[in-house]
């Protein structure tokens, strides 16, 4: 299994970090990607990744951070510096958040676009955060689409919207499935229509806690094997 989105770089894990890592690997997790949400957590993700062969970092500025047009250039410059690490597999998580945010949509879009461009420059995949902003996210992606994004982008904790799924299928974008699929009825319906070859598994730990329910009728072994391969393809690790 590949946990493609786990915030091991957050303070919630500091006290039990080694125990959490051991428990994950003992449970059959073979690879983990640790996404950053700002420069500090991105650097911490790299430090963690450098300590474990099968853990990788993603670096990025989350849209809920306190962003400004004035800081954009310097922040992207610093992000590019750390993104060059061989342990960085992705730029993320990046995107738009109109539910819980401190910065205007205009500033969020500037950071989103700049980081999309950075992903091409440093040749990394992309982790997309989208909350209540699907139209603008899709408009930006459609208007700035490059073939290099195909098979190297994921809609993290994907919104259960048909437009998102249509776009993902059209452009070979992965769909991140989290614990909420076990109790969110709309997510349950949505996930049944996602092609298995586009599914990746995320815990989004320490946030989303799953319930013991199987909503997609696929053998666990096949699901684990296929999503592992998908995760490796997403992050260019094959």
UniProtKB/TrEMBL annotation:
Pfam families: TatD_DNase (PF01026). InterPro entries: DNase_TatD-rel_CS (IPR018228), Metal_Hydrolase (IPR032466), TatD-like (IPR001130). It comes from the Bacteria. GO terms for molecular function: hydrolase activity, acting on ester bonds; metal ion binding. SUPFAM superfamilies: Metallo-dependent hydrolases. A divalent metal cation 2 binds at residues 129, 156. A divalent metal cation 1 binds at residues 5, 7, 93, 204. Coiled coil: none annotated. Keywords: Hydrolase, Metal-binding. This is Hydrolase TatD. It comes from Candidatus Woesebacteria bacterium RIFCSPLOWO2_01_FULL_39_10.
């Amino acid at each position: 299994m590949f946990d493609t989105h786990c915030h091991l770089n957050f303070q919630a894990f500091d006290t039990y970090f080694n125990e959490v890592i051991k428990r994950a690997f003992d449970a059959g997790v073979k690879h983990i990607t640790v996404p950053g949400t700002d420069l500090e957590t991105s650097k911490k993700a790299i430090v963690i990744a450098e300590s474990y062969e099968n853990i990788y970092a993603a670096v990025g500025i989350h849209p809920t951070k306190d962003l400004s047009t004035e800081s954009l250039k310097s922040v992207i410059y610093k992000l590019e510096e750390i993104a060059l690490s061989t342990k960085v597999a992705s730029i993320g998580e990046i995107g738009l958040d109109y539910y819980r945010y401190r910065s205007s949509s205009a500033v969020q879009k500037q950071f989103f676009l700049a980081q999309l461009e950075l992903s091409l420059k440093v040749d990394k995949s992309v982790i997309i955060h989208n909350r209540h902003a699907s139209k603008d996210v899709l408009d930006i992606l459609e208007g700035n689409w490059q073939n290099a994004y195909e098979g190297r982008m994921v809609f993290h904790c994907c919104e259960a919207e048909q437009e998102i799924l249509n776009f993902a299928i059209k452009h070979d974008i992965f769909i991140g499935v989290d614990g909420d699929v076990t109790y969110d009825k709309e997510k349950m319906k949505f996930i049944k229509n996602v092609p298995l070859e586009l599914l990746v598994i995320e815990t989004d730990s320490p946030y989303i806690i799953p319930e013991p329910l199987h909503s997609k009728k696929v053998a666990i072994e096949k699901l684990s094997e296929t999503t592992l391969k998908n995760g490796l393809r997403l992050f260019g690790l094959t």
